[in-house]
Amino acid sequence: MAFRVAAGPVVRRANISLLSLPAYSTTKFPSSSSQFLHNPIPLLNQNGPRYSIRAISGTTMDPVAPKKENEDQSPENWKIKMLYDGECPLCMREVDMLRERNKGYGTIKFLDISSDEYRPEENEGLDYKTVMGRIHAILSDGTVVTDVEAFRRLYEAVGLGWVYAITKYEPIATIVDSVYGVWAKYRLQITGRPSLEEVLEARRKKDEMCKDSKTCKM
Fold first, then answer.
1. pLDDT value at position 73?
2. The organism sits in which domain of life (predicted)?
3. Who contacts 34 (Cβ-Cβ below 8 Å, separation ≥6)?
4. Neighbour tally for 107: CB within 10 Å
5. Counting CB atoms within 10 angstroms of each CB, which of 58, 118, 167, 207 has the fewest?
6. Residue 162 CA to chain centroid, in angstroms?
7. pTM (2 d.p.)
8. How many beta carbons lie within 10 A of that of residue 64, not counting itself?
9. Are 98 and 82 in contact (CB under 8 A)?
10. What's the pLDDT tens digit per position in 69-102?
């Protein structure tokens, strides 16, 4: 510390270097966060009032976890429901594309028919076996559409109607429906899954095991 003397009153000017702080100013911080909250931290005392900083202790707040959004939650103004098989890997690629596109439209309600929450009575009586046979979609007025017509309506709902526009006209419509029919018939085998009969039997056994319990045993 240096002092500069002038003709007038003596003025003390402290030249403090961060590298040469007095020993009492280099406070060791407590290792515990609880000690830090309750113990004051002394500051420099240059022949003047001694100050301290005390952290305000209060209820600690846990970080806010991001809200998990229900991906199949119904938009308020949906125009069409897409009933899809959530256990079909190839199908899910198309579903994910439409779901991402739908974020800007909110016109499609996505319903996974493989979910335990799926209810046929809430979807024009379309049960699991029926919908597994080929794609089904339900318009807001209750009209059921299937096959390529369902895809055309779904794509139109998110501004991609041009993709299937040509399928409205013959003979393209008949050809495309025939091709889709073959795909729908063999899609389980193509994707490496059991036959529809085996899938239905597995679901039946699962339902029997879970019939008397809220929590499924499988």
1. 53
2. Eukaryota
3. none
4. 18
5. 58
6. 29
7. 0.62
8. 6
9. yes
10. 344 555 678 999 999 999 998 899 999 999 999 9
